[in-house]
Amino acid sequence: MLNFLPHWLRGTVALLLIILNTFFWFPFLLFGALVKITLPIHFIKKMMTLLLINISKVWISGNSFIISLTEHTNWVVTGTENLKQHDWYFVNCNHQSWSDIPIVQKVMNRKIPMLKFFLKQDLIWVPIMGICWWALDFPFMKRFSAEYIKKHPEMRGKDLETTKKACEKFKTTPVAVLNFLEGTRFTPEKHDKQQSPYTHLLKPKYGGAAFVLSSMGEQMHTMLDITIFYPDAPPGFWDLLCGKVKTVVVDVRKVNIPSTLRGKDYSQDDVFKTEFKDWINNIWQEKDALIKQFKITYQPTSKP
């Protein structure tokens, strides 16, 4: 709709509209958060959580619509059939760009429960969004480096405790927990530094995924393995707002989580740890092969 505008103006308009959309819904989220704080009754908290989730779905729909105003993107999406909004999912996705999250939100919104992901504890202080994330029960994590653990061995295992505590909130309300198993965005430099055995992926980080399944094995039986491919190279978020993304390929695959890999202690059970790593590595090999096939199928388009 706004394709007649120059790219920089499209991006500016889209950004301003997203900011306005966020400011519009923020008071409603803040009200729900205050109710949860002042009336810590289980029934009320659950009702407020459901209300806040529905508000967030509308907010995400608004953002997706705003982005669509500036784009002329060819969307190739497969595998989103027969998904349920009232089920629990562990969602994995390869990570290449800051655009990955709004793209996954656009594709999966209202098809599965609201996507939630683990955030660094410091992000709770981000203006407006920090309060929104807290109100929506996004789990905040404080990660400890290996060097810190060596100096403070009493902190070993705190990550698992925090994950389990966060996941307790997810047991009564269906949720889709999003995890970028690579842990960071893919770049050729990171790939070379890691000496990754995969051509198009970084090495997966197993612990976070294992901890979620350890905590939520009773509810979470299915992984949604999402593969995003950008034929014209991964775009920045500004590129997405400016409508510069020509093609986005999104493949969603349902993967059954074996019962033997749920509800166990990754930090203590060496047999389980080995089995879990093998399971993830097999998924990673298939994902790597899929991206290789996408590179053949979807050729880069000429730049405007």
Would you write up a description of this structure?
This protein has 304 residues and is α/β, with parallel strands linked by helices. It has one domain: Glycerol-3-phosphate (1)-acyltransferase, CATH 3.40.1130. Helices cover 47% and strands 13% of the residues. It contains 10 helices and 8 strands. The protein has helices spanning 7-38, 42-70, 100-108, 129-135, 146-151, 158-168, 188-194, 207-216, 237-241, 270-297, and strands at 74-78, 89-93, 115-117, 119-120, 140-141, 176-179, 222-229, 247-256. The protein has a 6-stranded mixed beta sheet, sandwiched between helices. A two-stranded parallel sheet has the order 4-5. Helix 1 runs antiparallel to helix 2. The longest helix has 32 residues, at 7-38. The chain is globular.
SSE topology sketch:
Blueprint: H1 7-38, H2 42-70, E1 74-78, E2 89-93, H3 100-108, E3 115-117, E4 119-120, H4 129-135, E5 140-141, H5 146-151, H6 158-168, E6 176-179, H7 188-194, H8 207-216, E7 222-229, H9 237-241, E8 247-256, H10 270-297
Parallel strand pairs: 1-8, 2-6, 2-7, 3-6, 4-5
Antiparallel strand pairs: 7-8
